[in-house]
Amino acid sequence: MADESELSRFRQQWKEEVTARTKASSSSSSSRPPTHKPKVPHFSRGVRAPDDNSNNDEYEPPTPSSPQRRPSISTATSGIPRSALEHYEKAVEKESEGNLGESLKLYRKAFRMDDGVDKSYKEKYFPRPAAGDKGKRVADTSAAVVNNTAHHTAPITGTSELVASFSGLAIEAITKPSLSTSEEGEEGEREKKFSLLASVPSELLLQILRFLALTDVAAFVRLSQVCKHLCYLVASEERIWAELCRRTFARQIWDWKVSVSGQELFLDSSAIIEEEEGEGETWEAGEEDEEEKRVVPVDDDELARYNGSWREMFHLRPRLRYNGIYISTCNYHRPGGHSGTSLSWGTPVHIVTYYRYLRFYPDGTLLSLLTTHGPSEVVYAFSKSLPSATLSPWAQHVSRGRWRIDKDGRVDVETEASNLPRYLFRMQLRVRNVKGRGGVKLVWDGFWSWNKLTDDLAVFEGRNDKPFFFSRVSSVEREEGFV
Fold it and tell me: What angle do CA 133, 138, 139 make, to 5 degrees?
């Protein structure tokens, strides 16, 4: 009994202590404010939070500190082209990948939407610089170069000044590091190669350059790439250029020297009546009297037009070349068969290509040819000693004639066709330079035909004719003795 009473007393005491502790903890928590809010789980938009007090409200998640990315809706990322330019860009991309079929389809769609889409593409990706931007860009580049130089000497602004700076240099043999293992110096010895040009006296060297220039002027100019001293001699040795000019322009034909058939004229051209086959088929002297009297230019007088430089006169003065052939490549489009149901894009087009060849001889004669045969079939056999027509189908169409040039670069060409004996054809061309190369381009001034029987003059429009460009031919050089 004593044990039970003691146990009940212990239980009663324990209950009192627990009750007291509970009341103390509740009173302390009510007197102090809460330090933090309870954590709320993250819910997506449209899901209700499990809160009994807010059953009718939709829970909104907190706004993130960093902005979220949104998918782009541009046509470039979506891959679906909308405009003509986008179709064209997609076609270019497919073409670069090698998918030509898909590229062609996109090109067609682009041109159907806008026939000038190619120009828009070029303006977008390859814009032309403004008129003043190019000079400004060059000026900025040169200024940057000058500012980045380590020294403070005056910068070289042109090629002529650069070549002039080579005047005090001499030809030196090439040096390279020696492979010997001798210990005769800290930096090591250098082995020097022997150079023949370095040991040649300057007088003999100039004679070598003179013979080279008179034999092959192209090789003489390329010699300037060997070293700085030879570059200075090639650019500044006026005696060589003067002799080269006198020999070159002395071989030009300033007035008629032969007839159209190739016979030499012994009298003055203004007093000659060229007799042709048949009665009444004559080229009257009065026809030539109406033209201006050709004056043979004097080289020393022409020198003033080229700043007193023989080298500049050789490159810029109009002349014709004899070591090759002038070729004109002409193309034009001709529409093919057209179906009433087909679209204009699918209409076939024929590209017609033909060639004109002119070869000038130093005796005043020339050869002219109009054919569809390419240069590889013509140039190596295009000479006065033509092969038979069985070997060269184009040989029977070669026309012979004569030519002359004036000091302003106007070239007169007269030819006769073997299958049209009563017609005389006359071309008037103009010599043009291309990138400092003289006599390499001939542009059209006019083209006429004269009927000897009826004295009628007809003009050819030459709508598809293109300029002539000079092509150097090794077989022609061997024939003329240049090699």
Answer: 95
Model confidence, pTM = 0.60
104-130 pLDDT, tens digit per residue, is 889 889 998 998 888 888 888 888 766
Q: Which among 221, 234, 220, 238 has a CA at the least distance from the CA of 299?
A: 238
DSSP strand pairing (468-472 vs 437-451):
antiparallel
Those residues whose C-beta lies under 8 Å from the C-beta of residue 169, and which sit 6 or more positions away, are 228, 229, 232
Q: Is the pLDDT of residue 144 over 70?
A: no
**Do the beta carbons of residue 359 and residue 406 sit within 8 Å?**
no
pLDDT digits (tens, 9 = 90+) for 16-64: 888 888 876 665 555 554 444 444 444 344 444 444 444 444 444 444 4
What is the distance between the alpha carbons of residues 212 and 477, in angstroms, rounded to a whole number? 15
Distance CA 291, CA 287 (A): 7
Return the beta strands (E) in 166-232 as ranges: 175-177, 190-192
Q: Calculate the CA dihedral of residues 282, 285, 288, 292 and round it to 10 degrees.
A: 180
Please state, in angstroms and rounded to a whole number, the distance separating the CA atoms of residues 163 and 229.
9
Distances (CA, A) of 307 to 109, 157, 311, 408: 58, 20, 10, 17
Asked if 330 contacts 464 with a C-beta cutoff of 8 angstroms, the reply is yes
The two tokens of residue 179 are 């492979």
The pLDDT score that the predictor gives to residue 272 is 42
The DSSP-derived string for 137-170 is HHHHHHHHHHHH-SS-SPPP-SHHHHHHTTTT--
- Cβ proximity of 328 and 466 under 8 Å: yes
Residue that is written with structure tokens 């001709």 in the block: 334
Phi, psi of 40 (to 5 degrees): -110, 130
Please give the residue that has the higher pLDDT: either 34 or 221: 221
CB count in 10 Å sphere of residue 112? 14
CB of 259 closer than 8 Å to CB of 327: no
Residue 304 · residue 236 · CB < 8 Å: no
The confidence band for 348, taking pLDDT boundaries of 50, 70 and 90, is confident
Contact present, 61 and 45 (Cβ < 8 Å): yes
At 263, list the tokens. Answer: 């016979």
